[in-house]
Write the structure tokens for this entry.
Amino acid sequence: MILSMTGYGKASAEYCGKKITAEIKSVNSKALDLQTRIAPIYREKEMELRSIIAQKLERGKVDFSLYIERDDANAATPINRTIVASYVEQIREIVDEYDLDEPQEQWMPTLLRLPDVLTRTEAAELSPEEWAVARTVAEQAVEHLMDFRRQEGAALEKKFTEKVDNIEALLAQIEPYEKARVEKIRARIVEGLNSIPEVQVDRNRLEQEMIYYIEKLDINEEKQRLQNHLRYFRETMASGHGQGKKLGFIAQEMGREINTTGSKSNIAEMQNIVVRMKDELEQIKEQVLNVM
């Protein structure tokens, strides 16, 4: 089964009055291109988080966020009472020393503007218990993204199978025209020669030239190679994930055989079929870029 590189995952958990949330999304890319936004308290674990993500995702342009949301009771920035008390004491000493009037109504606006009065008291160190919760949340988000990739991969595999089947069916439609055109070519050459009565034709030489000309237009080898590529494309899809690049290479080879068939198709019916084959292949090429 193939996997898509497109995906999204999110997970959350509660810990000590705060909500820890991990969010991750990915789109197609030639390699793993990982961008992270991590809450300050978890930044020391960034390399560990990157390793978790890289082991699972392998390829894709990935955006990962790990952040904290607090409940309303803990959302307000606390006032540092110790610092406020120290400022009040210092202000009163200055008032007494210089015989000034106390601020009275201006106490609170003055105090709240002083440094470090409004502080958010975060834990300076990340506890093992909190990190265990945060790590689990990150792993769950990655796993949800992988579930999304599997669903998208199944849809891509269904689409690819349909397109490969269509190309195979169109290839079979070429055969009747291919047999008929040999006789048409022979008849057209003979008719052209017969229209010039004064020309003496060496029948043996004519047969040799016609055989050479018909062999140049023969597409049996192209048909066989295209059949092989179609079979190999199906086998590669069934072999497991991580086959996106290989499927892209096979699609390129399929394109070469279809193009060569088109260049050798000198009747309109065959050329029309080749155009339809190219259209089916183009849809494969567009979507194979999303395969991991």
Observations:
- Strands lie at 7-15, 18-27, 32-38, 60-70.
